[in-house]
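Appendix B. Chain record.
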Amino acid sequence: MVDLSIAMTNFAIDIMRVGNSDLVHHNVHFRRHLTSSLQTKYDLVIAHRVLCEIGSKESRLELVASLWRRTKRFLILIDSGLYDAFEALMDARDFLLLSGTQLHLEDTISLLEKHNLMTDEIWAILHDKSISDFERYAIISEQVPDEVTLPTALPSAKIYAPCPHDLGCPKLTTNSQCVFPVRWRVIRADGRRSTREISGTETGNFTFVILEKCLRRPEETLARILRGGIGVVDEFALLKAFNIFSCIP
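Structure tokens predicted for this chain:
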């Protein structure tokens, strides 16, 4: 666990043990800063409600890139259900997806020449400024063997959840956010109870994205239901249709 705040670290230690006993999980380590070495990578990296605490978009993306370099397989970003938090989350999502298709020109040329894969067609594609980075990456990838890893700004990523696609989020065009309800046990230092509290718990929304360090392969992907429960009945009160809103692949 990495947190600059000593108070938050002590709080985390307290809730992870019973009384004055040892920690429930003995393999948990606490740090104030990320390790400087990128040699150690983790199967699962989680960043919970940290993006909106960082003042600038540039600093947020620097942190996301640093976390991604330390990720072996999955990176989970979690934040509140507020629109600003969702927007910051989508910035991080799109940044990792796009960085995974931005080729380093000189390194790519050297790699292809080393494997005797450079052709006039590939050379023209690499220097064509009329196509996007993604198009360039996709075309070059189809013309090199699978065992050749193209040098990109960051390791390639795909969305594991909740999005069934790697395209732009349509929610941003409507100034709305993709949120999920959650119920949690309330812990208050002052011992007071909130008016929203029911049986010691509250309900709220959060937003998240899970990125996997790999390329998305062509495959069938099911649409994800965003909202449902709207029935259409006829004059005899018989259900004729059931409308749902989905995020299509």
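Further analysis of this model is presented in Appendix C.
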